[in-house]
Amino acid sequence: MSPKFETLAIHAGQEPDPATGATVVPVYQTTTYTQDAVGADRGFVYARTGNPTRTALEQCLAALEGARFGLAYASGMAAIAGAMQLVRAGDHVVVADDLYGGTWRLFTRILPAYGVRFSYADATRPEQLAKAFEATTRMLWIESPTNPMLRIVDIAACASIARSRGAWLAVDNTFATPYLQNPIALGADVVVHSTTKYLGGHSDVLGGALVVEDEELHERLRFARTATGGVPGPWDAWLVLRGTKTLAVRMRQHQHNAARVAEFLRGRPEIAAVHWPGFPDHPGHALAQRQMRGFGGMVTIELAGGEAAARRLCEATRVFSLGESLGGVESLIGYPWKMSHAAFEPDEKRRRGVSEAIVRLSVGLEDADDLCDDLAAALAAGHR
User: Fold this and answer.
1) Are residues 223 and 334 in the same domain?
2) Mean pLDDT throughout 168-177?
3) Based on the domain organization, do 193 and 99 belong to the same domain?
4) Among 349, 328, 330, CA closest to 339
5) Are residues 232 and 272 located together in one domain of the fold?
6) CB neighbours (10 Å) of residue 306?
7) Mean pLDDT of the chain
8) What angle, rounded to 10 degrees, do the helices at 247-266 and 368-381 form?
9) Which domain holds residue 265?
């Protein structure tokens, strides 16, 4: 019988250290490795190429995603840039139009200078994605749930479209995590993570990862990473590996608290809309039930009072910290208009539903009553 998720998170890639028997993978804080003779190494030669701590993390992440190969990067954006090294000048990429602002910035301001073209379509309508394909399309890029509107994209349908056109499907799985969703099993070729978020889980490490099943694809990505050097240090890899051990228990509590917060906010007159896939009337609820094992810890809300009310709420909470990022044990409140999605032009943000009234909540592991009380007090303060 195959090990379950919780067992893999603690043991995959983490055998006792052969030199000492240490139960926990050591931090191999070295840049070079002594060779037995010229060309005779023990599997590692230089830290940019490989590090035992990083290898343990990569094996663990691959196991959690149900795939064979993992590649760790210095940040989530480094991982995204690493995935885009699969495409060449003259290639075309179809992109889901509801996506993280940093990804948008890379796709619109950096990569076009290298001859890569991008088209955007509503990923909740697979037929629109299919129409956006061209003869030179080499990749389809999606998120699910999306950032920040928490729309659900049919990964299997996207995989079918990409496969029929000879393109790769890349899925940013940061919001769902491997605990709630495994895109490889749904047909994806490349799974992307900002390990800074839920995988690290404690807001104390920057990292990213790619996971693939295909060996040739892994070799291409590994070669490109070695050539460009966007690797994490061993201490960062160790911190993410430590975080994965508790991912399952944390995600269960994140989701429990998110459900409480979402339900509480839905009944407030100050809130015009609450976006959370766990609500039965969410447009993607049925699809989320099919392709996910839960609905996650992110909640996005729209303030009835518009921009002024949204800003007041962000600045009035005391348990929720106003800050960038997400997925840590502490609750964070963010203002996408000026924070995670600042790279978009105003018209582009509004077209995607990201208005000045939108606030994004990363619901942490504090007591759910305290979180609701904090939001209630902040909402009340804004109406004095």
Assistant:
1) no
2) 98
3) yes
4) 349
5) no
6) 13
7) 96
8) 40
9) 247-381
Position 188: which residue type? Answer: A
Note whether 300 and 231 are same-domain residues: no
H or E stretch at 236: helix 234-245
Reply yes or no on whether the pLDDT at 383 is more than 70: no
The residue type at 4 = K
In sequence order, the 6+-apart residues with CB closer than 8 A to the CB of 138 are 86, 87, 88, 91, 92, 93, 167, 168
Task: Clarify whether residues 348 and 284 are in a common domain.
Answer: yes
Q: How many Å apart are CA 276 and CA 289, to the nearest integer?
A: 13
Name the token pair of 173.
């799985």
Q: What is the mean pLDDT of residues 270-296?
A: 98
- Among the listed ranges 145-159, 300-314, 339-353, which one has the minimum average pLDDT value? 339-353
Closest to 10 measured CA to CA, from 184, 200, 243? 243
Which pLDDT band, with edges at 50, 70 and 90, does 382 fall under?
Answer: low
Active site residues: 48, 100, 172, 197
Q: Which residue has the tokens 């969703």?
A: 181
- Closest by CA to 315, choosing from 331, 340, 334, 329, is 334
Average pLDDT over residues 116-137: 97
Mean pLDDT within 230-245: 98
> Are 196 and 223 contained in the same domain?
yes
pTM: 0.97
